[in-house]
Write a structure and sequence with these properties.
Blueprint lengths: L5 E5 L2 E5 L29 E7 L16 E11 L2 E10 L8 E7 L9 E2 L22 E11 L2 E10 L9 E7 L5 E9 L8 E2 L5 E5 L4 H4 L2 E5 L7 E5 L9 E8 L5 E7 L5 E7 L10 E6 L6 E4 L5 E5 L9 E6 L5 E8 L4 E9 L2 E8 L3 E8 H6 L9 H4 L1
Antiparallel strand pairs: 1-2, 3-26, 4-5, 5-6, 6-7, 8-9, 9-10, 10-11, 12-13, 13-14, 14-15, 16-17, 17-18, 18-19, 20-21, 21-22, 22-23, 24-25, 25-26
């Protein structure tokens, strides 16, 4: 499948995209996007709040607190039934050890949050009384937060369960938890075996739902997409992205729907090329083009994209290939080429973003050093008011 060449008009400059590698363009973009001075990107105003924090009191907010003995990451947001919901992974040690569970909190406005509560139960035989608690071993289990799914008027929370030795264990399962009338969550069963998703399902034009899938051996078998979820929570077909384990080491994919209903999937590359890769589908996720390296810079970190109600697209990411700092917001008119990149927050380790749109604003959840769950509220009018420089924003020129 070849959707190119195409001709794009960006900021009054006509750009011929002879191959699908152009994902960032504009007068401010240097030929090598790794040369961008990310610290000097235009800043957009925001409101900020910390939902949860496992650091010791008084810790330096710019550094990991290795003595805190806890993790907060894999942050997700949703607005449902008149309030905001957040969920995240919470456990002993730094990142995905035995005994990790999923927590949640609620908010009336996205800025004032309730006290957190556990969403998932203690993983089987992996509680604080287990000799393996807080370690990395296949003798214990962990839950990993996987996002909220609004389906047929009800709110579901997705979480994966597997052995806590590596990424991922052979017992990997994706579960759904159903919100109960008393505010508790009940395990609704396995959504798909041998699966961890990256973001919750979105609906296609066909009426089917779709979400990404990584099986436990995805590093050799590659990334898949699951299509279905209509007849039941567990009714899905799995379709591979050929080349996602050969052309790159595909990790943590995201995707969105283009104006002509083509699907665009974007992948981080664990080979550390420092760029995002992209694949396209014209048959609603059944087959995909071979992933191609774009010129969009990346810190080998999770990304979160979204199509806005007005038809534009936003992408929240760590574009600095040297480190996960800063976190930025990029904007595109067509979902293919982003022409604006704005500085959100930085000066410290920041990652695992998830962006949603509600009212006139974007709400962006992210992790600070994998030990805090934080949220930014950014007004879209403020995004529109910020202008990009008219010349390349190079490190050499700014320093």
């Amino acid at each position: 499948m070849n959707l190119f060449p195409l001709v794009l008009t960006l900021l009054g400059v006509q750009i011929a995209a002879a191959e699908p590698s152009i994902m960032l363009a504009g007068p401010w973009v240097p030929p090598n996007t790794h040369d961008i001075d990310f610290a000097a990107l235009p800043k957009v105003p925001s409101e900020h709040v910390i939902i949860s924090d496992v650091r010791a009191k008084g810790s330096d907010p710019t550094k990991l607190d290795k003595k805190a003995g806890g993790v907060n990451q894999h942050n997700y947001l949703v607005h449902h039934d008149g309030q905001f919901w957040a969920m995240w992974s919470d456990g002993p040690g730094i990142e995905d050890r035995v005994g990790q569970r999923v927590k949640f909190a609620t908010s009336p406005d996205g800025l004032k949050w309730s006290k957190s509560q556990y969403l998932t139960p203690i993983p089987p035989n992996s509680g604080p009384d287990s000799p393996h608690y807080g370690t990395r071993t296949d003798k214990g289990m962990r839950w990993i937060s996987r996002g909220f799914w609004k389906r047929d008027g009800e709110l579901l929370a997705l979480a994966s369960l597997d052995e806590a030795a590596g990424f991922f264990g052979p017992g990997l399962e994706l579960h759904a938890f159903r919100l109960q009338s008393d505010g508790s969550w009940q395990d609704a069963g396995v959504v798909f075996d041998d699966t961890i998703n990256n973001f919750p399902p979105m609906k296609l034009r066909t009426g089917d739902w779709m979400m990404s899938r990584r099986p436990h051996d995805y590093k050799t078998s590659g990334v898949h997409f699951l299509v279905g979820g209509v007849k039941s929570l567990s009714d899905w077909q799995s379709y591979p992205v050929l080349g996602s384990a050969a052309e790159l080491k595909a990790e943590e994919p995201d995707w969105w729907i283009l104006p002509d209903n083509t699907l665009a999937a974007v992948f981080r590359d664990n080979r550390r090329s420092g760029f995002l890769y992209r694949a396209l589908s014209t048959d609603d996720g059944r087959t995909w083009s071979t992933p191609v390296k774009t010129n969009f810079p990346d810190a080998t970190s999770k990304i979160s994209g979204l199509r806005l109600r007005d038809g534009r697209y936003v992408l929240v990411s760590n574009p600095n290939p040297k480190k996960r700092d800063p976190l930025t917001l990029s904007i595109s008119d067509d979902g293919l080429v982003f022409t604006k990149m704005l500085y959100l927050v930085g000066g410290r380790h920041i990652d695992y973003p998830h962006v949603i749109e509600h009212g006139d604003s974007l709400y962006i959840a992210f992790a600070g050093g994998k030990q805090t769950v934080e949220v930014l509220k950014v007004k879209l009018t403020d995004v529109d008011a910020v202008k990009m420089p008219e010349k390349p924003l190079r490190i050499s020129e700014a320093k």
